[in-house]
What we know:
The protein is an all-alpha fold. The protein has 2 domains: 8-89, no CATH class; 104-148. The protein has helices at residues 8-16, 29-33, 42-56, 60-67, 71-84, 104-116, 121-132, 138-158. α3 (42-56) runs antiparallel to α4 (60-67). The termini are far apart.
Amino acid sequence: MPLPPEDSKIKVLRANGTLHPHPEKVQDEVFKSHEFFDPRDHVQVKYEMLRRHGTEGKSVTEMTKSFGTSRQAFYQTKKKFEADGITSLAGHRRGPKHAHKCTDELLDFVEKWRASHPPDDQSLIEELKLRFSVTVHPRSIDRALIQRKKKRKTTNRRKPA
């Protein structure tokens, strides 16, 4: 059964980080024959794979082939599910969640630096290495400054006049 075109469900799954990266690899008959089962929903695919293995006694090899995953991914998913329950099946964003190097102290320094020096990102980056012992890409600094300004605007709007 061909996958439907992009719709509102795909947008929601993508926004939640639960859109299956390779729904075409899901070869399980239930996902092909019943509209309730959506191979684009990664949480549903993982849950059904674990459920079938646990309740119907299907082998790991059979499950990995049917659900288009590796044995390692199966065992990791199973371990997380047993430890943390169904919420563990939702994907989690990897990597830093924010500009962790761009502290308030560093951004204060950048603003003062830029106010008193000609625009030269390379000099600024070298100065940050010396003073803060961090290497930060100029674009990361710009994004952090923009985010900081947005936060200040929303904070100022909330304060009563």
